[in-house]
Specification:
The complex is a heterodimer of chains A (about 110) and B (about 160). Chain A is built from 4 helices and 7 strands. Chain A has about 110 residues and is of the alpha/beta class. In chain A, β6, α3 and β7 form a beta-alpha-beta unit. A 5-stranded antiparallel β-sheet of chain B has the order 1-2-3-5-4, with helices on one face. In chain B, α1 runs antiparallel to α2 and α2 runs antiparallel to α3. Chain B is built from 3 helices and 5 strands. Chain B is of the alpha+beta class. The chains are: A alpha/beta (about 110), B alpha+beta (about 160).
């Protein structure tokens, strides 16, 4: 589970360099997210372009990562693949996050 | 135009996959990867494969976590078959009896919850029940048998 982080326009973009955030990877994801967002801008965008699949453990880990940021910071999501989008939609967790088509559109504030 | 769907024959059910799943999260990942490949080879539509992948991953993780309590035990048996408009996945394990897989009570909409109260778990059952057309659990002797039926034709 590898996360790469960059800052642009005062926003932290964390890119997940793994194909799956699932039961086998959820704990590592949570730990890595906590480590790389311990300090930083109020707005964090999680770039999921590489991620083909998120199961309920992965979803829980993403929710946990959002909570870990604290009340003053926000976690947005970008580049959800069809299977990932489906999991967020069926669980209605797509209403909890701002979701963008790509990291670039997240930075531009454009939902498409 | 060539036909690309697998010929299921006059008596219906064609076995698409028959494999062991090691009782661990990595084992689940590996088994689902094989299942996905077999379904694609059989000409199952991508959207249906996604639904099956999500529901079967959740069901297998559930078995590993609850029936087998994470212990190193015998593998879970997975069999996928199709008959025309339906795709069936049967999971068998020799772990502890599992509670009935009733559809979960729907709680408050996530947008109604303060951030601190957002759930981090309990989504698995919801996903299985949303994606499978029918879910059946049987206890047969020392074995749990979970049957998931999926529609095998994409919606128009």
């Amino acid at each position: 589970m590898r996360l790469t982080s960059r800052q642009a326009d005062g926003v932290q973009v964390v890119r997940v360099e793994a194909e799956r955030i699932d039961a086998a990877a959820a704990i590592q994801f949570k730990d890595e997210m906590r480590r790389c967002t311990a300090e930083g801008p109020d707005r964090v965008v999680l770039d999921l372009a590489e991620v083909d699949f998120v199961d309920s453990s992965g979803l829980g880990a993403i929710v946990a990562a959002m909570k870990d940021l604290g009340a003053d910071r926000q976690l947005d999501l970008a580049a959800l693949s069809p299977a990932v989008e489906k999991v967020f939609r069926l669980t209605r967790m797509d209403t909890v996050f701002a979701i963008f088509g790509s990291a670039e559109s997240a930075l531009a504030g454009d939902p498409r | 135009m060539q036909a690309t769907r697998a010929d299921t024959g006059p008596c219906g059910r064609a076995v698409l996959a028959d494999l062991d799943c090691a009782a661990s999260p990595i084992g689940v990942r590996d088994a689902v990867r094989v299942l996905r490949r077999r379904l694609a080879l059989a000409g199952v539509a991508t959207g249906i494969i996604t639904d099956v992948e999500i529901a079967v991953t959740e069901a297998l993780n559930n078995i590993v976590e609850h029936a087998l309590h994470g212990a190193d035990t015998a593998p879970i048996r997975l069999r996928a078959s199709s008959s025309g408009a339906r795709l069936r996945v049967v999971l068998r394990d020799r772990g502890a009896p599992m509670p009935q897989l009733a559809a979960p009570r729907s709680g408050p909409a996530p947008t109604e919850l303060p951030r601190i109260e957002l759930p981090e778990g309990g989504f698995g059952r919801l996903l299985i029940c949303e994606l499978a057309e029918r879910v059946r659990y049987d206890r047969r002797g020392q074995e749990n048998v979970l049957t998931l039926d999926f529609r095998n034709c994409p919606s128009p």
